[in-house]
Amino acid sequence: MLDDPTRQSLIDAAIAVRAHAHAPYSHFHVGAAVLDEQGRIHAGCNVENAAYPVSQCAEATALGVMVAAGGRRARALVVVGHASGGAWVTPCGGCRQRLREFADPDTPVLIVGAQGLQATLTLDELLPHSFGPDHLSST
Ligand code: THU
Question: What is the mean pLDDT of the chain?
Fold first, then answer.
């Protein structure tokens, strides 16, 4: 599904937007990019706030940008961060649920670190036994 040029474009977009992260408190810069059902790429960075809990993750920004642009399905998501020791920067629990709203169980989530692509996980691997919109559609 995710051809090589598209994968690379997604990664490039996430790397580029990471440079705009507003992270004066954690100093941990994150970029994310989502591919929508129209083949468009939407990018977002983390946006921290002096009132710490109000801070927003890069994935939340990217998904919000997608929705604002009229995108309704996330076909792939890339997260870029440079964690200490080269650990994977995977979406936080809240962002896994945010992605669940717009993605399928097999939607790929690509984890990119300082040295490049580290892992490709599915949404279902990140958020098994999840609750989503389908749970609300029948009585
Ligand atoms: N952060 C993200 O934006 N995405 C992740 O997947 C992990 C964490 C942000 C939130 C906060 O601004 C900073 O990284 C440190 O947690």
Answer: 97
